[in-house]
Write a structure and sequence with these properties.
The complex is a heterodimer. Chain A has helices spanning 5-9, 26-31, 38-41, 67-71, and strands at residues 14-15, 22-24, 47-49, 55-57, 77-79, 87-88. Chain A is of the alpha+beta class. Chain B is of the alpha/beta class. Helix content of chain B is 32%, strand content 26%. In chain B, helix 1 (13-24) links the parallel strand 1 (2-9) and strand 2 (29-32). The mean pLDDT of chain B is 95. Classes of the chains: A alpha+beta, B alpha/beta. The interface between A and B is large, with 38 and 55 residues.
Chain lengths: 93, 429
């Protein structure tokens, strides 16, 4: 049986900061973005549209690859690495 | 402001290689690593080509924590329900000195950080650099957690995203057409099982790449690398193709589908997935790589765009280590001259140009736009496998002559204007 993406992320060590390291300018997503590539490019599947129709990201499971940042046409992401000692800590890499 | 001889932003292979060289020469060097340890944020497929760097720090490779030397190279062209594998089993690759080894970065980078500290270099972990400090256009140090630290020269080894270098105006921003994303599972299996599945002698390793239906025609492919007691099983896919994917399929599902393919399933069967990782890869080539140095700074490794996907050989870690080495030598030279200006640090650019790093990237200049062609990832793997399937098929009726099967297949799939044009394009690579 295929392991769900959530279960895969559950194998990783994350040290979760209370400060989020990805902030979405949802206004841009709503008004200028028609593609919403963030919803499928993220290899951790962290992006979704919430009940209010806003793009959201579950930054806690971020693998810090930057794919969303690079693929966003509209520079709608304020994206930086988590503070030192936070975020994913690969045990194998 | 506190000051050291050299600050290195990022404790991956490029940064640690530079630190090792500088610490060996007695310079005061501080590496700032944001992870809990070196390697905590690093990912490889992957394998390290040691041959190009064996003469760089020769004492290091004797004790390095390699997984397995790669003695078997396999490339599978995946069609629709039929796949063709080309396998090279090289006795030369199996004989020391081995040209390449599989590695796991969390282990490998921690080991290299230990070597740096033994030489007297400082590796400060859990320490994210927030900014490069600029004064009159020159880099004079870093800001980290509210503290400013100065340095004669700052080596930027922050990895592929290069966020700090971009913010400081030292390189351009990130373009999807120049990048791919790789993601993989690490799947544990007993050593003997791995050796049986890839026909390996004790301790030997294989690198197995997959092109074609695995990425549904998008630039990229699948990979399996054998570690000691685990496999790295993953997918690489070009970001420009991925974000324009008409099906808008979640990227991670490519890996799930890959693992479920009838030819892959028995290779990973019974294994236990223990980690899932993802990382961006620069594939823009030398044509789009940034300026390597300037007043008070040097860019090394992925930050400098030093990586190369030539389809069957994928490199970056050897370039990272070599660029770190040459950066250290250039800093030592600049220190002797007492001059850390762009003109003085250009010694680094010159050294890279005379080394395999920029020579190999120059040779590969035309590769990035050649491999953008989606036919490489759909038409050709499909055509090869279809032809091979015909050659091996005995149907209920009378068979055609082998020559007419081959000629028919070649005429249909390879003798056409598009293929001839592509072959002409291939001459450049």
């Amino acid at each position: 049986m295929t392991m769900s993406i959530e279960a895969k992320l559950g194998l990783d060590v994350f040290k979760i900061d209370k400060e989020r390291h990805i902030t979405i300018d949802t206004e841009k997503c709503r008004t200028v973005c028609t593609t919403k590539a963030c919803l499928w490019v993220c290899p951790a599947n962290l992006y979704e549209i919430d009940d209010q129709g806003n793009n959201t990201v579950n930054f806690e499971g971020c693998l810090e690859c930057g794919t969303c940042l690079i693929c966003c046409d509209h520079r709608a992401l304020d994206w930086h690495y988590p503070r030192g000692e936070y975020g994913v800590q690969y045990r194998m890499g | 402001m506190e000051k050291v001889d050299c600050i290195i932003v990022g404790g991956g292979l490029a940064g640690l290689s530079a630190a090792y060289g500088l610490a060996s020469e007695g310079l005061e060097v501080m590496v700032s690593e944001r992870g809990d340890y070196s390697g905590a944020k690093n990912v490889t497929g992957g394998r390290l080509y040691v041959s190009p760097i064996r003469q760089i720090y020769p004492e290091l490779w004797e004790t390095a924590p390699f997984e397995r030397p790669v003695v078997r190279e396999l490339v599978t062209l995946m069609g629709d329900g039929a796949h063709t594998t080309i396998e090279l089993a090289s006795e030369r690759f199996a004989t020391p000195p081995h040209q390449s080894y599989t590695v796991l970065r969390a282990r490998f980078d921690q080991w290299l950080a230990d070597q740096v500290m033994e030489k007297g270099g400082m590796v400060i972990t859990k320490n994210r650099v927030d900014d490069l400090l600029l004064e009159d256009g020159r880099v004079i140090g870093i800001r980290a957690g509210g503290d400013d630290i100065g340095a004669d020269v700052t080596i930027v080894a922050e990895g592929v995203l290069g966020l700090l270098a971009t913010k400081a105006g030292l390189r351009e921003g990130l373009r999807p057409e120049d990048h791919a994303v790789g993601f993989k599972e690490i799947i544990e299996l007993p050593e003997g099982v791995i050796q049986d599945r890839w026909h390996l002698n004790d301790g030997e390793g294989a690198a197995h790449l997959f092109m074609g239906s695995v990425t549904r025609g998008m630039l990229g492919g699948g990979f399996i690398y054998t570690n000691k007691d685990s496999l790295c099983v993953g997918i690489v896919v070009g970001m420009e193709h991925l974000r324009k994917d008409a099906e808008q399929m979640n990227s991670y599902k490519l890996l799930d589908a890959f693992k479920e393919m009838p030819m892959i399933k028995p290779l990973v069967d019974g294994g236990t997935t223990v980690e899932y990782a993802a990382h961006a890869i620069y594939e823009g080539g030398i044509a789009k790589s940034p300026r390597l140095s300037g007043d008070g700074y040097l860019l090394v490794g992925d930050t400098a765009g030093l990586s190369l996907n030539a389809l069957v050989t994928v490199r970056g870690m050897d370039f990272a280590i070599a660029s770190g080495y040459h950066a250290a030598r250039a800093v030592v030279g600049a220190r002797t001259r007492g001059d850390f200006s762009a003109a003085s640090l250009a010694q680094y650019d010159q050294a890279l140009k005379s080394s395999f790093v920029l020579q190999d990237l120059e040779t590969a200049r035309e590769i990035p736009h050649t491999i953008e062609n989606p036919r490489l990832f759909s038409h050709y793997p499909q055509a090869v496998s279809r032809l091979m399937e015909q050659v091996f098929t005995i149907g209920p009726g009378p068979s055609k002559k082998l020559s007419s099967t081959v000629i028919g297949g070649v005429r249909k799939d390879f003798l056409n204007v598009a293929t001839v044009k592509e072959l002409l394009g291939m001459r450049k690579i």
